[in-house]
Amino acid sequence: MLALVLACFQVCRVAFTSSNGVKLWDIASGLSVPFKTPNSSPGNVNVSIHTGATVSQNDSRQRQHPRIAILLSMVPSKMWSRRGIAHAKAQLDLYINKACYAKLWHYDLIINTTNSFQEYTNINSINTTRNPYRPWLQFGAWNRVEHMQALMDSGKYDWILYGDHDMIIQDMTRPIESMLQEVELYGKDKSASAFVPVDTPGRNEFRFSSFGLMLKTNQVGRSILKHWREFAMGLCPKGNYLPEPGEENNTKGITYSWRHSDQPGLWYSLIKTHQEYSSVHSSDSNSDNNKDAHANEMVRCNSDTGYFVHSAGDLGSHFSKYFQQAQVVRGTGGKDLAHVPDNQSILWSHFGQDEVEISARNNTITSQRIGNGPFAVNTLCCMRINKLQGLKPAFAMHTKYGSRNWPGDMPLQLQQCKSKLGCYANLTDEGVLTVGCRDILYFSEVLFA
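Given the sequence above, the corresponding structure tokens read:
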């Protein structure tokens, strides 16, 4: 979920930018905004031969590159309004990291600030017949669902990589296409529609933080967003989870609790989507029955309270057990990916034997690890990484701390992004956030009223 806290603001927009100078329409407001796309020059390929001759060959099998967007959702969460500009200024390198990566690989970096659920959270203007009061939607992270839906509906992208502002690209030299090509190499490309990060230790664990995920613009991707939004609207008569004590009649907002955020909603959505599109069934009918029982139990409503019978923690447990019973195989690369069924549409990162331990400088070993999949998790300060020979670094990681504590060459790469590519992120005292790289302006909007 988004950890950056922003004060409320009135005008919300989405900024589209890349590298050449085409005009597109702002999804949120209908206003024309600069939008640039990378150069593409298919045609003849000149091949130099050792004799000095030059052969011109026409490649009729010109590869069609996927259209990829990197999305950040930047909508304020009311319960975090005590944080502000000073807190945000300390995290500007997080934006530079993603801007630099988009610049290097010619991706569209989109920062969307549209509050799509405002009509459900303003108690003074609620039409209770049409839009019941849904205070949990005050968590700005819920808006990623609508923002990803808008990008899919635009028809401009084949894949959408969503990342919280504190998801950083760890391997700048690895384009997103490399992950897709590895999936193709292992014959999983016809079905692969979602990449999700497993950041909880355990070989039979499927729970994860929604700090990052990548969806394909197809039926499976749309189904994930559809069911995610179902959860957002509330599955029980009064919503999903009981309010915290004392919040039942609180019209000023709710205090922070991850269970009210979009995190459990994504778990629910993946189960519903798997039920719709999975053609893999166990040879043991009891296993399939147990799987579906977990799916039904996780969202059972209490007729007395009007909320779920189970807690969010219980939901997570049922979530993992569902995919265990479904015999889903985790893996996004190498030998792990080779074992994934060809028709499995959701690809989960894997904590394999080739893991990298993270330890604090006080030598306290933690249970958190960086896996060799496309995503990784790291919420520690002052970490060091003991690299294992031959291990590919995770593509991205989740961090709550500043760039001085980033692992490996990442601090050096950040400096190169600033000095060589001219990438920057600035936040004025008036609350205007500007993100860009030399001749590309990715975003410039007032985020703080």
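The chain is about 25% helix and 20% strand. Try to locate this feature in the token string yourself.
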